[in-house]
């Protein structure tokens, strides 16, 4: 997934660039180019998940393209 600055949506950054920079040079904030949707089943069963499981599920939507997925 690519990220853009809230002050310049035309220039895209990789996850590595966004993490290493912290903030864009234009003093905006990095935002993902799209907001992925979680499946309805996730929301229906969210009370069954631990905090770590919820975080893993959400983070994987944004990071899985750029980071290897560890098989549990």
Set down the secondary structure blueprint:
Elements: E1 3-5, E2 8-13, H1 15-21, E3 30-32, H2 40-44, H3 51-63
Antiparallel strand pairs: 1-2, 1-3
Brief sketch in words of this structure:
The chain is built from 3 helices and 3 strands; from the N terminus they run ββαβαα. By secondary structure, it is α+β, with helices and mostly antiparallel strands. Strand 1 (3-5) and strand 2 (8-13) form a beta hairpin.
Keywords:
single chain; 72 residues; alpha+beta; 3-stranded antiparallel sheet; 3 helices; 35% helix; 17% strand; elongated
Describe the structure.
It is a single chain. With 72 residues, this protein is α+β, with helices and mostly antiparallel strands. It has 2 domains: 1-33, no CATH class; 36-72, no CATH class. The chain is built from 3 helices and 3 strands; from the N terminus they run ββαβαα. It has a 3-stranded antiparallel β-sheet with strand order 2-1-3. A hairpin with a 2-residue loop joins β1 (3-5) and β2. The longest helix is centred in the last third of the chain and has 13 residues, at 51-63. The mean pLDDT is 91.
List low-pLDDT spans: none
Helix content: 25-40%
- Major sheet: order of its strands? 2-1-3
Distance between the termini: 23 Å
Number of helix segments?
3
Global morphology? elongated
**Gyration radius from CA atoms, angstroms:** 14 Å
The helix-and-strand class reads: alpha+beta
H/E series, N to C? EEHEHH
Strand share of the residues?
Answer: 15-25%
Number of strands: 3
Nearest-integer average pLDDT: 91
Our count of domains comes out at: 2
Main sheet, how many strands, which sense, barrel?
A: 3 strands, antiparallel
